[in-house]
Amino acid sequence: MTNDQLKVFLKVAEYQSFTQAGEALFLTQPAVSLQVKSLERDLKVALFERTGKKILLTEAGRKLLPYARSITHQMEEAREEVRPLEDTPQGHLRVGASMTIGTYHLPPLLAHFLREQPRITASLAVANTHRILHDLKASEIDLGLIEGEPTRTQGISLDRKFLDHDRLVLIDSVRAPLISGSGPVSLDRLRKIPFIGREPGSGTRQVIERELLEKDLSPDSFETVVTVDNPEAIKELVALGVGVAFISSLCLRPHESGQVRTVEVKGFSPIRNLWIFVPRKKLSSPANLFLQRLLKAPLPPGSQGR
């Protein structure tokens, strides 16, 4: 017994005619007869009997009638309930982001996106710029968000879209400061103060080195006492007085003002671009949707990137 058979049965019962039922259903009279015969064969009973020119329900047909109406109605309700989901995006989104974006910028945007798209799941990989671009070219992630400018080799076979600007700021400890006074510090003075640097492959490190070279200074100008691959660890070490460091303004939170402070550097205020990198191939539906969300609302509320 199928839904189509029950629909034909109901129309024949309504019109008391195979021909009129066929016209209402856009079926031929033989097709209607075939559906009724198949239903009768399945149920092993006759459902209609001929009385003159009319087709009337048998006792079995009358008993089936309310069930047929209920079943076809429930089928329609089920179809209406499920139909909207046919157009609802679904699938898995794989995002990779370098440290600053992945830790401070992306989580609120990703959370908002997943609330909007309940049938999409996601994974987020946070690593340095070099690793993110490598994984993107290896098709291990769908989108890559990075800070700074990749090398020409790193950017091969990838397209990029501008996300926003990000300012790098120098931070020092509040309780155990290494820079005296409240005024700006010169680069010459800064080069003699213990410095906490980022690891090779970091977007932050690339920007600092590029800015130093533009001022005819060696990338090894600072007295680096430790290299760290995590902004939170850097802030903690700075707060403890281990050294000073350049970090993204996105990394600073209001409640940390009692632990670290920003210090102006004379003639040195590095600004870097934030980029979205995509492979040169058709994106999955979840990846394309998230890309449009990023381009529409690039920075989370309260960020300091602009």
Describe it for me?
- With 306 residues, the protein is an alpha/beta fold.
- It has 2 domains: 3-86, Winged helix-like DNA-binding domain superfamily/Winged helix DNA-binding domain (Arc Repressor Mutant, subunit A, Orthogonal Bundle), CATH 1.10.10; 91-296, 3-Layer(aba) Sandwich (D-Maltodextrin-Binding Protein, domain 2).
- It has helices spanning 3-15, 18-25, 29-43, 59-86, 99-116, 129-137, 187-190, 203-214, 231-239, 285-296, and strands spanning 48-51, 54-57, 91-97, 120-126, 143-147, 158-173, 194-198, 223-228, 245-248, 260-263, 271-279.
- The strands form 3 sheets. Strands 3, 4, 5, 6, 9, 10 and 11 form a 7-stranded mixed β-sheet that branches.
- Strand 3, helix 5 (99-116) and strand 4 form a beta-alpha-beta unit.
- Helix 1 packs across helix 2 (18-25) and helix 1 (3-15) packs across helix 3.
- The two termini are 65 Å apart.
The span between the termini is 65 Å
Shape: rod-shaped
Query: What order do the helices and strands follow?
Result: HHHEEHEHEHEEHEHEHEEEH
Would you state the CATH class of the largest domain?
Alpha Beta
Average pLDDT: 88
Largest sheet: 7 strands, mixed
- The CATH topology of the largest domain comes to D-Maltodextrin-Binding Protein, domain 2
Unreliable residue runs: 298-306
Instruction: Please identify the structural class as seen in this structure.
Output: alpha/beta
